[in-house]
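--- STAGE predict ---
source: upstream dedup step, 1 unique chain passed
mode: sequence only
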Amino acid sequence: MDIEAEICALQLDSAEDNNGVVNPEDAKPEEVEMADKVDEEGMKDEVDTKSQPIKAEPKVKDKEVAAPEDAEALDEMETEKKRHLNVVFIGHVDAGKSTIGGQILFLCGQVDDRTIQKYEKEAKDKSRESWYMAYIMDTNEEERVKGITVEVGRAYFETETTRFTILDAPGHKSYVPNMISGAAQADIGVLVISARKGEFETGYERGGQTREHVQLAKTLGVAKLLVVVNKMDDNTVNWSKERYNEIESKMTPFLRSSGYNVKKDVQLLPISGLVGTNMKTRVDKSICPWWNGPCLFEALDCIEVPLRDPKGPFRMPIIDKFKDMGTVVMGKVESGRVCEGDSLLVMPNKAQVKVLAVYCDENKVTCAGPGENLRVRLSGIEEEDMLSGFVLTSVVKPIHAVTEFTAQLQILELLENAIFTAGYKAVLHIHSVVEECEIVELLQQIDPKTKKPMKKKVLFVKNGAVVVCRVQVNNLICIEKFSDFPQLGRFTLRTEGKTVAVGKVTDLPSSSSA
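--- STAGE serialize ---
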């Protein structure tokens, strides 16, 4: 604790020194200060001295935001002013999701020119010149060599009105479980479609990831979708209105059949992720004379999402955990607020914990509300005593922990020769839980037209059927009824790398609470 106090005092001192120097026009003094530092250190190149202040600016601002007591009130006011949204980038492999994510960070000034030049050279050495923007998001060497995203990439950027967390989901069908964990944390989705001849068709056909990702996103609670038609600058497309209209005409009925209200919840727009056209600023009429709609940043800013309840019982599914001066857990707050010093429960093992610190977008905060992606440092539990899928929950009204529940399922596409009946086994994905499950009993089939239960007893169902059934898992899992907490009550069933059904929890056993 003494070391922490000393660090805190040092930070305060440095913050006070800064306050003595920094004017409202803080950019210029910072540059002067940086130039002095550069002279002292005797930097060699002129290029270095020019690029140094540019790189340093955001860092100084970060420090100001993170400075403990004096900046804390300001920081919280700023946080309150701007709404926060989690955006997941989904779509078929090679549609350009990581490239768009990298381009957004570059356009927001979070990546300097020298880093970009380094990535360009690295990509050229691998004979993959067009991959360099994706390297900003794909930091892992395996991802760079293969040119595909494996883990869910994470980054932050801001516009005038909103703070965004980018979740860059993998498009390859082998990594769909990772994509599910990314989409489960998102409020809105950006479905990336490649306009290049042949690539759109591959992603859209049966078995293509464009279809599966849309169905999964809807099931996982991604209510609003921005469909970006990427690679419009490609030689096979050349910003062709005909190609854009063709993609729109095929996607619209499919999005409607997946449960999206196309007029209210979906917006299409053309972009080029590699060169950044129609992303931060609207596309020039000389390039694309027929497009009169918004650019990507404008469309993201305008999206309305339902307000969340900060007064509800606290719920944060744990997606990752590690050791760092205590046990640190990561996750997205689905309900309620968390503050430093709170006493909480980790379910399902009912461990009592205390919140030592809360971090939001790398900055330390005293409190955080629903929708925020957090890192929370806890005392009272060891890192090895937790798994992904455990939930940090309020003591007064803890989350339900069950091994069996009743659910309403929609069968999408069973494997060949498979019959969906009692005894059917699959892998259940619900928030950050991945658990093997078995269908114990089919209770009733729902008529898709009338939405009412059918009278005849049901023994098995086929593709497209809606059925109410009892589902059993081997280990305790933390879930809620869909009607109480939609985000913790919707799930998917997968078998052999394929999504076979989507569903929602309709009822829990009465003795399921802590």
